[in-house]
Each structure stands twice: as C-alpha cells, then as structure tokens.
Design goal:
It is a single chain. The protein has one domain (about 25-235). The protein contains nine helices and no strands. It has helices at about 25-40, 45-65, 70-90, 105-110, 115-145, 150-175, 180-190, 195-210, 215-235.
C-alpha cells in the first residue's frame, strides 16, 4: 500500500497566532482551537484531539469565570501557556516550522486509515500532558515570577479535568460491535498508558526544569530527552491496527 506516514502542512485558520503574544487570553486560544475545528476534516487525527482539548479548555474557562480556581490569574496564565504549546506545534508560525518530537507521530499518522480516533485522541493527550504541560508550568512561573509550588493547586485542578475527559474519551471512542475483532489489541495497546502516571512524571519534570533554569545547556538536553521519550510513546500508541486498512 502507499506510504501514508507524512507531514501535513499547517492549516490556515485565519487567526493570527502571533497576535497579542504579550498578554494572550483564554479567549484567544479558544478562537484558534475553534478555527482549527472548522478548518480540519472531522476524521483528521489533529481534529480528533482538537475537539477533545477544546472541550477541556471551554470547561477550564467556565471554572475560571465562576471562581473555582484558587488563583484566577495563575490559572489563566497556566491554561493559556499550556494551550499555546499545542497550538504552536500543530499550527506553527512561521509555516512549516518543525514541530516537537512528541507531536510528530500524530502529525505523521493523522490521515492513516488504520489508526482509530481513540488512538489519535490519547496520543494527543500523551504529547500535551507528557511534554507541553511541564514546559507550560515553567513558562507560567517565568510570567508570574513564582515557584512551581505556587502553581500546584492550579496544576492539580487542570489534571482532574483531564482525568475526567480521558474517561469520557475512552467510553465514546472505543470501537463498536462491528470492530470487535480489533478491540482486544486496541485495549492492550492503550491500556499500558496512564494519565495519572503521566501527570506525576510531568510535575517532576517541571520542577526539574525550573531547578535547571540557570544551567541552560543541561535544561535544553533534559527537554530534548523528555520530548523524544514522549514522542516514542506516542508513536507506539498510533500503531495501525489490522482489519482497518482497505
């Protein structure tokens, strides 16, 4: 069969990703996500994850607006820095900038007919939690001039939302009766990954990166290795399953 593993050019969403970069808002990142949702085919792997993440970000926005975070400013900053990491990877500016290793598997396999929507969604969650969230904590600490410990409450609340969403994603995107022949390998493939373990590792990575901020060479190497490891896990999660390729 023809080679289906390839990078797809970024979608022109019509939203300027560089606008208001000094003080972006949750509305800004929501606008970019909604533009992606409107522009991408529904079965596209990035579109599948984007719908999942859009729902999370909308819920975070509602909770911020209703005062359900201890520190609204910190929650907003962390949420926006977190979302920007994802958006800059899948819809980069300038165009065709090489994405982080953690996002490359999803971008390469996004149109592969042998990959299920559940795989796309969880591979995106893996990349975003395993890599982007650690860097977003450091970004937020720099923006707010604070230590990671001061963002721990916001980190935990965002993590709780993501945990609830992971359960919903698994329920909604598991194969139906007509695909029972692949349900067992799919369950086995994705059952080896845990969002809770990923969150714990991410918090440790964020603290390590913050401690290494005065050692830029070491911090850069640490970040590269984290990116590569998360990307390797994502590539395994996107293994095409038999019985789906025409």
């Amino acid at each position: 069969m023809p080679q289906l593993e390839q990078f797809t050019a970024p979608v022109d969403t019509g939203v300027d990703a560089g606008a208001d970069t000094d003080r972006p808002s949750v509305d800004d990142v929501l606008a970019r996500m909604r533009a992606l949702d409107a522009a991408l085919p529904p079965r596209d792997g990035v579109a599948v994850f984007n719908r999942v993440y859009l729902a999370v970000t909308e819920e975070v926005d509602r909770r911020i607006d209703t005062g359900r975070f201890p520190d609204v400013g910190a929650a907003t900053t962390l949420d926006v820095r977190f979302a920007e990491r994802y958006l800059d990877a899948v819809d980069p500016v300038p165009a065709y900038r090489r994405p982080p290793a953690c996002w490359r598997p999803l971008l390469q396999f996004r149109r592969h007919p042998g990959v299920r929507p559940l795989q796309f969604a969880l591979a995106g969650i893996n990349a975003h939690i395993g890599h982007d969230l650690a860097l977003a904590v450091v970004d937020a600490c720099r923006s707010l001039d604070c230590e990671p410990a001061e963002l721990e409450d916001e980190f935990e609340r965002v993590g709780e939302l993501l945990g609830t969403l992971e359960e919903r994603v698994r329920e909604e995107l598991m194969p139906g009766p007509d695909l029972l022949q692949i349900a067992d390998p799919l369950t086995h493939l994705l059952g080896s990954w845990s969002l809770e373990r990923a969150r714990d590792a991410t918090w440790t990575a964020a603290r390590a990166l913050w401690a290494l901020r005065r050692l830029p060479d070491v911090a850069e190497e640490f970040t590269e290795r984290l990116d590569t490891a998360v990307g390797f896990a994502g590539r395994m999660m996107l293994t095409p399953l038999p019985g789906l390729v025409p």
